[in-house]
């Protein structure tokens, strides 16, 4: 599957500091130390609807990580999946009377356009669930060899107890898992399962649903095995960061880790698990099931500057839960007008301290609000509103232009 075109990103004349992230598994901030290229996996969309702000916030967050690593001197291998066959997609296709493959292709293309407009760096490997079926089958066969997979009717299940580390990624106790699991696609009450928390890795054929022939029998892979197989194939064992929304902590990331760690106990699935907060609208978490969505494409089609959308996202720490307000978007539009006015002057307040502060902020758990505040202080000083522009930097605008793009993904 093709990704979207990569934007040209300026090279900064300085090197940023090592990047630290809050790790969900340990509950502490961890300094990443890539051995070779930094390896990042971010769980992608299920393409049955357009990109909403909850999606955008997550992908912009891990775009900041990609950029922070690059500015710290690392090469980056970035992998993202697309769950282009799954129950929600099939259900939506049936409701709107559209072929499921057509719906998936259409919404994936819209996602590409949204990501390109927001200047999110594309993944090196953008992999669909359908094209990854051979990888998933191979991983399931390996799990079968370990004795961790069993059959219930036409489906194959993974025994979570096969992974001694099960539960360490999320930190949830069993009661919490049992409460959350059915809310996020699990089937704890299915008869025949050895443990209510066991998850399906191969779903046998159902009437009216797509399926593929395989050595496992006809069917299609489960959601968790898909991501585990793709990550193992393209990033290997103990890659640097597993990223996604906080709603993926359990069961998705926990199950992915379990599959990978049983298949290869030589190391953890990922060294760090980093999770973005949820975005609300009208007082509730933004979700397709509730319909309280603000779509990136709808704003773009209304001639809203995509950089204003990105700035709204940057003004919230990526791990925080927050609510989208239309007033914040219009405030961002006005802010960018001030920033462009300051940049148009050419000379301005000294840029060096701003570069240092922005790179330090983003290396500290992707603290974009702190970075934005540093840029705003430079703008205020350059426009003379704070009285701080006692000295002038003739190349300030060029430096800040490059910094905004390379570090924050804002092309002004």
Kindly describe this structure.
This protein is α/β, with parallel strands linked by helices. It has a domain at 20-285: 3-Layer(aba) Sandwich (Rossmann fold), CATH 3.40.50. Helices cover 41% and strands 15% of the residues. It is built from 13 helices and 14 strands. Strands 5-4-3-10-11 form a 5-stranded parallel beta sheet, sandwiched between helices. A 4-stranded antiparallel beta sheet has the order 6-7-8-9. A 3-stranded mixed beta sheet has the order 13-12-14, covered by helices on one side. α10 (326-344) crosses α12.
Summary of the model, kept short:
41% of the residues lie in helices and 15% in strands.
Task: Please state the overall shape, judged from the principal axes of the Cα atoms.
Answer: globular
| Annotation, overall tally of beta strands | 14
Element order, helices and strands?
EEEHEHHEHEEHEEHEHEEEHHEHHHH
* pLDDT < 50 stretches: none
What is the terminal-to-terminal distance? 30 Å
Task: State which percent range the strand residues make up.
Answer: 5-15%
Task: Give the overall average pLDDT.
Answer: 95
CATH superfamily of one domain: HUPs
CATH architecture of one domain: 3-Layer(aba) Sandwich
| Main β sheet profile | 5 strands, parallel
The value of Rg in angstroms is: 22 Å
Q: What share of residues is helical?
A: 40-55%
In terms of quaternary structure, the protein is single chain
CATH topology of one domain: Rossmann fold
Q: Helix count, per DSSP?
A: 13
Helix vs. strand class: alpha/beta
């Amino acid at each position: 599957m093709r990704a979207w075109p990569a934007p040209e990103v300026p090279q900064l004349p300085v090197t940023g500091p090592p990047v630290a992230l809050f790790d969900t598994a340990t509950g502490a901030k961890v300094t990443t130390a890539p051995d070779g290229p930094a390896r990042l996996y971010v769980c992608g969309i299920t393409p049955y609807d357009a990109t909403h702000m909850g999606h955008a916030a997550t992908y912009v967050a891990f775009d900041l990580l990609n950029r922070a690593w690059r500015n710290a001197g690392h090469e980056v291998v970035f992998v993202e999946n697309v769950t282009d066959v799954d129950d929600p997609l099939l259900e939506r296709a049936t409701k709107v009377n559209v072929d499921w493959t057509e719906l998936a292709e259409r919404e994936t293309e819209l996602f590409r356009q949204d990501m390109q407009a927001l200047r999110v760096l594309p993944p090196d490997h953008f992999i669909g669930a359908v094209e990854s079926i051979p990888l998933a089958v191979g991983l399931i066969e390996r799990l079968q060899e370990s004795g961790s997979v069993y059959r219930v009717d036409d489906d194959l299940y993974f025994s979570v107890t096969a992974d001694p580390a099960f539960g360490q990624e999320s930190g949830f106790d069993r009661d919490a898992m049992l409460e959350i699991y059915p809310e996020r696609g699990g089937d704890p009450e299915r008869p025949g399962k050895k443990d209510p928390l066991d998850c399906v890795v191969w779903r046998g054929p159902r009437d009216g649903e797509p399926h593929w022939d395989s050595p496992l029998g006809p069917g299609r892979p489960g959601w968790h095995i898909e991501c585990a197989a793709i990550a193992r194939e393209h990033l290997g064992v103990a890659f640097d960061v597993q990223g996604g929304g906080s709603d993926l902590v359990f069961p998705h990331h926990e199950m992915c880790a379990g599959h990978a760690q049983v298949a290869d106990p030589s190391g953890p699935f990922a060294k760090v698990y980093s999770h973005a907060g949820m975005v609300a609208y009208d007082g509730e978490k933004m979700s397709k099931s509730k319909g309280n969505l603000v779509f990136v494409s709808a704003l773009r089609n209304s001639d809203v500057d995509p950089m204003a959308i990105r700035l709204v996202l940057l003004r919230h720490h990526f791990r925080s839960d927050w609510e989208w307000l239309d007033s914040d978007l219009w405030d961002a539009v006005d802010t960018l007008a001030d920033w462009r006015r300051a940049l148009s002057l050419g000379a301005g307040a000294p840029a060096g301290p701003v570069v240092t502060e922005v790179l330090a902020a983003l290396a500290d758990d992707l603290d974009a609000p702190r970075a934005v505040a540093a840029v705003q202080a430079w703008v205020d000083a350059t426009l003379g509103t704070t009285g701080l522009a006692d000295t002038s930097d003739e190349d300030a605008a060029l430096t800040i232009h490059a910094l905004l793009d390379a570090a924050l993904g804002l092309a002004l």
